[in-house]
Structure formats: structure tokens, C-alpha cells
Amino acid sequence: MSDIPLGAMPAPAVSAPPARRQARLPALVVLALGWLVLMLLVAFAADLLSPFPYTALDLRNRLSPPVGMGGVWLHPLGTDELGRDVLSRLITSIRMSLLIAFGATAISAVLGVTLGFLAAHFRGLVEHAVLALVDFQASMPFLILALAVLAFFGNALPLFICLLGLNGWERYARIARGLAVSAGSQGYAAAVKGLGASPWRVYGRHVLPNIASTLIVSMTLAFPEIILLESGLSFLGLGVQPPMTSLGNMVGYGREYLTRAPWILLAPSSVIVMTTLSVSLVGDWLRDRLDPTLR
Amino acid sequence: MLRFLGLRLARALLTMVLVVTFAFVVLRLSGDPALLIMSADAPPEAIAAFRQAWGLNDPIWQQYIRYFAAIFRGDLGQSMRDGRPAIELVAERIPATLALTLPALAMKLGIGIPAGIHAALHRNSFADRAVMLLAVAGFTVPSFVLGLLLVLVFAVQLGWLPSGGQESWRHAVLPVLTLGIGGAAVLARFTRSAMLEVLGQPYMRTALAKGVPWARAVRRHALPNAAIPTVTIVGFMVGSLLAGAVVVESVFSWPGVGRLLVVAVANRDLAVVQCILLLVAATMVSANLAVDLLYGVLDPRLRSAPREATA
User: Fold this and answer.
1) Residue A92 to residues A17, A51, A83: CA-CA distances in angstroms?
2) Are B247 and B146 found together in one domain?
3) Per the omega criterion (within 30 degrees of 0), is the bond before B85 cis?
4) Three-class SS of residue A79?
5) Contact between chains at B136 and A277 (C-beta distance less than 8 A)
6) Which one of A152, A269, A273 has the shortest CB-CB distance to B27?
7) What's the rounded Cα separation, in Å, for the pair A251 and B295?
8) Among A143, A171, A290, B203, which is most exposed with the fewest C-beta within 10 angstroms?
9) Which residue range or ranges hold the ABC transmembrane type-1 domain (chain A) (predicted)?
10) Assigned domain for B78 exists
11) B11 interface with A at CB cutoff 8 Å
């Protein structure tokens, strides 16, 4: 992992003939991208799109089935036990889950890259300390660590996002360290350093843009993991707390009504699956295009 | 070889020390356990007595050392809720968890590895594409969704199997399936890419060029080399035998370690949480150690190489 050859980066077309690199997007990737754009739009325009406030009760239409299963257009995806509109809750949940996933991914990338650069810059003791932390993080199932922290600290949304941001930082740290070390031995970093640039400038302005494609690919690969983690914890009732709602929350709540009102659970479940599937497909495709060194 | 062993052991011990320190730091940072466990309007004398009893008045480094010593003796504290030793509570749940995770592990290995190898050997065939599609699906469908879907189909609609509880072997079928399918998918994907990488190596070409039959080249040259990365992920699966079923146990109301953990977290029963944390860490570290030793057996080059070679 640490000795990733950097040769692939500046010369992207290793063996493929140039014509094939302009091939059209695979249909599946187009679909996946379309779905992700839709999700982003929903997240941004959640307030405009939801027909009802997500906590509004409609007591005359409790457990109303979705359209197509005998329901009415007033509640296209049905309602839950309290008569809350499933579509509105779904929209709010998508926003919450995406917010958490983006926040956590950003935190773990920044944390990991910073630690990786620190290790690469100072070497010696700092590097050993970072690597020991990486080992520790990589050798523990993150769900267990997260549960332990939640038990000790209780739950609040900012804490929850930061906690999820600790997931997977070790992968960015490994990548950043490995690439920064090999960048150090390449001409451009040494040249900038020779011109008197500060370490901030060397790493921020020169090394970072050079390794960005690798980092972006690993971010897309880590993103579904965060969504799954968040929805898993929320499903267990230990993540996002009511009255706030996330996709995992909805599934956890809908589980009680599995036999009587399966739509409460099926709507958020399919959004989770479609979203993680789409991000994975796009991530795999990006990886194949941008960075064949990652697997 | 001795140096190799020593390094691995030291690394395992260091990880354990880090985990124990993590538990201690988090425990102390999280606020006053006395106030957590007693209600806010408890009489001050009761709180003082509680603090005295749990040694919360001593300097922090003394508590740290005492903490280490206690763990070394196998004393992991009592459940703050019902007063029984935490380790006892956890230990009686272990068989139930293993009853799910061991068959699931067998399923993952039995399906995932052959499927991955087959897909790699028949790259771009129909079977390869099917395996990869299933693998991506298995990886992206969260276990609670898969579990609930299985319940919906096999318990609610068809009525073949029970949806939860732990009365007979039939109750274990759905949870084992849920665990096994996801894991098999991950393993198949991993095995496939490991195999593909190995099949493209020059030594494979050399073996074929000198006239070794394809089947023998695969068996003698490709499989052992592809085993090295695959062993890593299998090690992780073995290490999570205790902790890998948290969500699935909750879906199926299965009284295992994971269920206990979730309840303990919700009740903030810190002794139990910490006991499970340490136990899981110990399992994980042992599994990683075993993997490291296996590397040494599988690949003699790694015995003397610097540690980063495997990291």
C-alpha cells in the first residue's frame, strides 16, 4: 500500500488506445449518476418538495397504503401509524442522511490526509505514531467503536457526524502518506521546496492536487459505507434521534409495522439500496478511469 | 523468523494497550459516572458513597493503573444495572452469537471463495458478470434491509420460517442467511480481484510458456499467491465472529452478544459495553496475529520484509 507507483498518475493512458478513452458512459453509470443527481436535488429542495411537514399528523388517514396498493394521491407513498406522510418523511430523511454522509466523508478525508501528510513530512516518531493509530483503527470493527463512544457520550447530531467522520480515515492516511512520500522523491516537490516554499505550500498547492484523483476515488468508495453505517446505527435506535428522521430511522420504525404496513419500511430501504448502489457503480467506474492503482 | 514473530506480537500487544487506553479515556471523558448512573436528584451522600466505592476520587493516573491491573486480572467490572460481573453477562451470550456467526462464516467461505475464483478464471463470461452484479448488490444492501426482506418473504408471506427468537434451529436459518449472503458477496469480489491480479503476473506466463498445464498452473501458482490478500479479509471475518452480528441479532431478536451490546449502549451500562469492546478487540487482534503468521507461512518473502509490506 505504501509504495504505490506514481507513474500512473501523470500518464493516464497506460496501455489503452486513445480512442477508447472517449467511449460513451456505460448505461448503468448514467442511470446511477441520474439517481444521485435526483437525490441531491431532493436533499437541496426538501422543503419545497415535501407535500407536508414531516412531523404533521393526519389522524384520519393512519396507515394509509401507497398509490397502487389502494391508497389515495393525497399520500402517494402512504402514511404511518401516526398518519405522517411517508413521502414527506422520506424527503426529509434523504436530506438528513446525505448531510451526515457528506459531513462524515469530508471529516474523515481531511483528518486522514492531514495525518498522512504529517507522517510523510516528519517521518520518524510521528510516522510511527500515525501508523500505530492506523493499525488500531483498521483492526477494530468500526461499528463496535462507534457504539462504545455513543454509550459513553450519549448522542447528539454534531457528535454523531464527527463520530462517523472517524470511519475510514486510516485509508486516506495510508494513501496520502504513501503518495506524499513518493512525491517527495519526485522532481516537482523537491523543486518547489528548493525555491523556498513552506511545507504548507508544498503539500497544499503541489502535492495535494497531484494526488487528488486517488483521494476522490477513495471518497466515492467510502461514501456508501458511511451511509450504511449511519442507517445501521439509526436503525438500531442509536443514531439520529426522533423527532429528527433519517433513512435508517424510518426502516427501524417501519419494522414494527412489517406485516401491516410494509410500505413504511420499503420506501426508505429502496432509497438506501439505490443510493449506495449508485455511488458504488460511479466509484468503480471512476476508479477504473482515473486510477488503476486502487483496487 | 523469531524477529518476525516478535514484531507481530509486539504490534498485537500495542493494539490491545491502545484499545484499553481508548476505553479508559473515553470512559473518563464522558463525564462523571456517578451522575450518569444515579438520578440527578439523588442525595449527595449516596453520590459520594458511590464515588468512593468505584474509586472515582483518586488521581487519574492511579485510576488508569488500577484499570489496567483489574483488566489484567480478568476483572472487567460489574454491570452497573444489575450488579452481576459484566464478563459473566457477556460470556453467557457468546454461544448464541457463535451459533449464528460460525455457520455464516462457513457459508461465506463455501460460496464466496469458489465464486470469486470461478469469476476470475472466466473473466467477462456470463457467470463473471452475474457474480459481480450479485457481489455489488450484496455489498450495497444493508444487512437490516436484507434481513427484513427475508422476513417479509419467508416469514410473513410464505410462513415457512419464524421471524425472530431462538427456540429451534429453524430460527437460525434467516439470520445465518442474512449474514452469509452479504459476507459471501464481499469475499467473492475480493477473491476475484486478487485472482485477476495474480493471473496477470509474469510468473503465470512463464509457467504456461514452459508447458505447465493450465489447471496445474492455476493450482500451484495462482491460488497460493491469490490466497495472501484473501487471507486478510478472511481474518477480519474470523475476528468479527463475536461482533459481526450486532445488527442482524437485533433484527431477529436473537439473544447474542450484539443484542446485549445494543441494549447496554441504550442503557449506558458502561461496564458491559467496555467488556464487549475489549473482548471484540482481543478476538480481532488474535485473528490479525494469526493472519500475520499465516502470511509468513504462505509467503516466505514477508518473514524478513519490513512491516509495511503487509499493511
Assistant:
1) 46, 11, 16
2) yes
3) no
4) strand
5) yes
6) A152
7) 41
8) B203
9) 94-283
10) yes
11) yes
The x, y and z cell numbers of residue B10, run together, are: 509486539
Return the axis-axis angle of helices B270-298 and A124-139, rounded to nearest 10°.
Answer: 110
| CA gap B142, A234 in Å, rounded | 12
CA dihedral A230, A236, A237, A240 (to 10 degrees): 0
Residues B199 and B242 in one domain: yes
- Cell numbers describing residue B242: 463475536
Q: Does B101 touch chain A (CB under 8 A)?
A: no
Show pLDDT as tens, one digit a residue, over chain A (295 residues): 344 443 334 434 344 444 444 456 788 888 888 988 988 888 888 777 777 777 777 777 777 777 767 666 777 777 777 778 888 888 888 888 888 888 999 999 999 999 988 888 887 788 888 888 887 787 778 888 888 888 777 778 888 888 888 888 888 888 888 888 877 777 777 777 778 778 788 787 878 887 887 888 788 878 888 888 888 888 888 888 878 888 888 888 888 888 778 888 888 888 888 888 888 888 888 877 776 555 4
Residues A170 and B302: beta-carbon distance below 8 Å: no
Q: Is A174 on the interface with B (CB under 8 A)?
A: yes
ipTM over 0.85: no
Residues linked to residue A79 through DSSP beta bridges, in sequence order:
A85
Alpha-carbon gap, residue B199 to B121, rounded angstroms: 8
Domain shared by B106 and B239, yes or no: yes
Q: In this structure, what C-alpha cell is assigned to residue A202? A: 508544498
Taking the C-alpha atoms of residue B290 and residue B284, their distance in angstroms, rounded to an integer, is: 10
Would B221 be classed as within a structural domain?
yes
| Strand-pair partners of B85 | B78
Cα–Cα distance list, B266 to A238, B210, B279 (Å) = 7, 64, 19
B67 and B132 in a common domain? no
Number of domains in chain B: 2
A173-200 core/surface letters (b: 16 or more CB in 10 A; e: else): bbbbbbbbbbbeeeeebeebeeeebeee
Contacts of A136 in chain B (CB under 8 A): 15, 18-19, 22
Amino acid at A265: L
Q: What 8-state DSSP symbol labels residue A262?
A: T
Q: Which three cell numbers stand for residue A250?
A: 424510518
Find the domain containing B172 and state its range: 94-255
Joined together, the cell numbers standing for residue A70 give 389502494
Contact A139 B15 (CB under 8 A): yes
Q: For residue B244, what is the domain's CATH number?
A: 1.10.3720.10
Does the global pTM surpass 0.80? no
* Distance to chain A for B168, nearest Cα, Å: 22
